[in-house]
Each structure stands twice: as structure tokens, then as C-alpha cells.
């Protein structure tokens, strides 16, 4: 018995046939386009957007008294981000200032003492000259009386008086020399104390600068124009020096892409080659860039535990080489790209021969 098809079956068969043809055509077009893409470009989807993301680190410890930013907030260079209680640092600075004032006053007193002792030393030196003159005069008198006494023209009593006076003048001369030496020693002692005092003043000045620096650390400011990231602190929290308090994304530097290409793909890549970048978040927009560097080693070589192929368990794995790509579009265009976004990178292949 001959099988008959209804009109509905014929229509369904016809539509199904056309759909199959369209699917085949679509798959063919997609396949050709994909093969053409692989033929024309070295491409990879193992790539991410990079930008400088730096931690905001406290250089002073204490209680946080104010937080001046919110997550994702834009900030300008110099904007206040955090304020730490500065009372202890302020007291340390005042104590050092007081010690510095005391040391400076001591130096002034030593300067006055030095001046006074120098005057005393000058007077002692003048007394030496006077006593020396008296001693010379008395020595001449003694010599004359000695001749007269030898000629029996002077009495023994006169000779003894002249001798006694000569001895007194000689002693006074020696005493004046000792007084001068002692005065000079006192001047030198004061000068030595001044050197110590000046050294102490310099130490206190350096310490004061340190305390002022510590005091300035209690106010954390934005190091550059950027956008705040994750915030991990709140008012009243006790922090230590070196604690990470937040993260900031640097808006003053350009973004770049790190594309991890297979080692078999980088043979003809050179610095300055043009690049096309398509972000997963914006598949309909192409971003332009240029190669600015190729890593000096594979990514695995920079890992914490690089693989050791000499252990005997060697399995050949195609390695990846990071390629750094600078985005050349205007900042208004690249602003929408965020750090860590996945992108697809296309580098035109260079044909030789």
C-alpha cells in the first residue's frame, strides 16, 4: 500500500530542510571566519587588564579617629583619607622641643663662661708679664748687691733682704704661670663641653624632625589621583604601623594588558606591533594597543615553586610567555576597562617569504 504524506508533513519537511541549510551555512561562515581569524592573528583569551593597585599602608600606630573616604570613591592627590589619634606623638614632639630649648640655653651659658674664662686667662697672662718684669728688676738689684757684698760695700742683712725679695718675685712669677695654665685649661674644658652640647643639640634637632615626621604620619593622604578600592578600617579601630588600611587604583598611569601567549605563538612578535583587544564585558568594541615588552621568562618560572623537569616525572607542557600591551585609546575609552577584566587579544601574524 502506497504511503501518503499530508500537506502539513510536506511543509514541515520543507521548513526543516531550509533550517538545516541555514544552520549549515551559518556554521560554515562561522568556521571560515574562525579559521581566517586563526590564520590572520595570533590570539589568546588568557589575558587580563592591569593597572597599578597599591595598598594604603599606615606608617604610624594608634586609634583611628576619622575615615574620610568610601569604597569606589574618586580622590585627588593630597586628599585626607584617614586620621589617627596624634596625642602621644604630639607629646613626644613637645618633650623634644623642651629638651632642645634646654640644650640651647646650656650652650649659651657655656658661651658666656668661655668668654669670662678667656678674660681671666688674659689677665693671668698679663700678670705673668708683670711678674716677669719685677723678677728681672729684682735679679739686677741682686746682682748689684752681690758685687757690693763681695767688695764689702753692702751688709749681709741687705743681701739677705734682696735675696728674699728675689725669691718672692720668682715664686710670684711661677704662680702667675700656673694660674695662666689653669685658666687655659678651664677655657679648653668649657670648649669641650660646648662641643658636647652642640652634638646634643644636633641629636635633639634630628629627633625633633623624627617626631614631626611621626606626627605627620597620623594623617594619611592620597598619594596620587585615583579611585579607592576595598576599605578594611573603621573609626575607633586600633591599628599598628605597617597595617594595610585600604587600596587605591592609580588613575595617573595608563592601563595595560598582560596576554599570556603560548611559546609557539611568539616567534615573530616584536616591540611596537599593533594589537586589537576585545573585552568580554564589551564584545562589540575593539580597543587598540601596541606591544611594549615580552617577559624575559615564562610565567611558571616566576612562580613560588618553579617546576623542576629533572625529577624524572617530566611531561612536556606548552609554556606561556607574558606579553605586555599598552592600550593606546584615549583615557575616556579605556576608563570602562577595570583591573582584572578578561580580554581577548589579537596580534596580526607576520608572513615571511
- Poorly predicted regions are none
How many extended strands? 15
Approximately what portion of the residues adopt beta-strand conformation? 15-25%
Main structural class: alpha+beta
Shape: rod-shaped
The CATH class name of the largest domain reads: Mainly Alpha
Mean pLDDT: 83
Report helical residue fraction: 40-55%
* Main beta sheet strand tally, sense and closure: 7 strands, antiparallel
Supply the CATH architecture of the largest domain.
Orthogonal Bundle
Rg from alpha-carbon coordinates:
47 Å
What is the H/E string?
Answer: HEEEEEEHHEEEEEEEEHE
Domain module count: 3
**First-last Cα distance:** 68 Å
Physical arrangement of strands within the biggest beta sheet? 1-15-12-13-14-11-2
Count of discrete alpha- or pi-helical segments spanning 4 or more residues: 4
What do we call the CATH topology of the largest domain? Helix Hairpins
Domain Multidrug resistance protein MdtA-like barrel-sandwich hybrid: 56-249
Domain p-hydroxybenzoic acid efflux pump subunit AaeA-like beta-barrel: 257-347
Organism: Pedobacter changchengzhani
Subcellular location: Membrane
Amino acid at each position: 500500500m502506497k504511503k501518503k504524506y499530508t500537506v502539513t508533513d510536506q511543509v514541515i519537511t520543507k521548513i526543516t530542510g531550509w533550517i538545516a541549510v541555514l544552520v549549515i551555512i551559518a556554521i560554515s561562515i562561522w568556521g571560515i571566519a574562525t579559521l581566517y581569524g586563526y590564520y590572520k592573528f595570533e590570539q589568546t583569551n588568557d589575558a587580563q587588564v592591569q593597572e597599578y593597585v597599591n595598598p594604603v599602608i599606615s606608617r604610624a600606630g594608634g586609634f583611628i579617629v576619622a575615615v574620610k573616604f568610601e569604597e569606589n570613591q574618586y580622590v585627588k592627590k593630597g586628599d585626607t583619607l584617614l586620621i589617627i589619634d596624634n596625642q602621644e606623638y604630639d607629646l613626644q614632639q613637645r618633650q623634644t622641643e623642651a629638651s632642645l630649648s634646654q640644650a640651647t640655653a646650656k650652650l649659651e651659658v657655656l658661651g658666656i663662661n668661655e668668654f669670662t674664662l678667656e678674660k681671666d686667662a688674659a689677665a693671668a697672662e698679663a700678670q705673668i708679664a708683670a711678674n716677669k718684669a719685677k723678677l728681672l728688676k729684682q735679679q739686677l738689684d741682686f746682682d748689684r748687691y752681690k758685687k757690693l757684698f763681695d767688695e764689702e760695700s753692702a751688709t749681709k742683712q741687705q743681701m739677705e733682704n734682696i735675696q728674699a725679695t728675689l725669691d718672692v718675685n720668682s715664686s710670684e712669677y711661677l704662680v702667675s704661670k700656673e694660674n695662666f695654665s689653669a685658666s687655659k685649661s678651664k677655657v679648653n674644658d668649657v670648649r669641650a663641653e660646648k662641643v658636647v652640647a652642640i652634638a646634643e643639640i644636633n641629636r635633639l634637632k634630628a629627633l625633633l624632625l623624627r617626631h614631626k615626621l611621626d606626627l605627620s604620619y597620623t594623617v594619611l593622604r592620597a598619594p596620587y589621583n585615583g579611585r579607592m578600592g576595598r576599605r578594611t578600617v573603621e573609626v575607633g579601630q586600633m591599628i599598628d604601623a605597617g597595617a594595610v588600611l585600604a587600596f587605591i587604583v592609580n588613575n595617573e598611569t595608563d592601563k595595560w594588558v598582560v596576554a599570556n601567549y603560548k611559546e609557539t605563538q611568539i616567534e615573530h612578535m616584536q616591540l611596537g606591533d599593533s594589537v586589537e583587544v576585545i573585552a568580554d564585558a564589551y564584545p562589540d568594541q575593539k580597543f587598540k594597543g601596541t606591544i611594549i615588552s615580552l617577559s624575559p621568562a615564562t610565567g611558571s618560572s616566576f612562580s613560588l615553586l618553579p617546576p623542576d623537569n629533572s625529577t624524572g616525572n617530566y611531561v612536556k607542557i606548552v609554556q606561556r610567555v607574558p606579553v605586555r600591551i599598552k592600550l593606546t585609546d584615549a583615557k575616556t575609552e579605556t576608563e570602562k576597562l577595570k583591573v582584572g577584566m578578561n580580554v581577548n587579544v589579537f596580534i596580526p601574524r607576520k608572513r615571511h617569504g
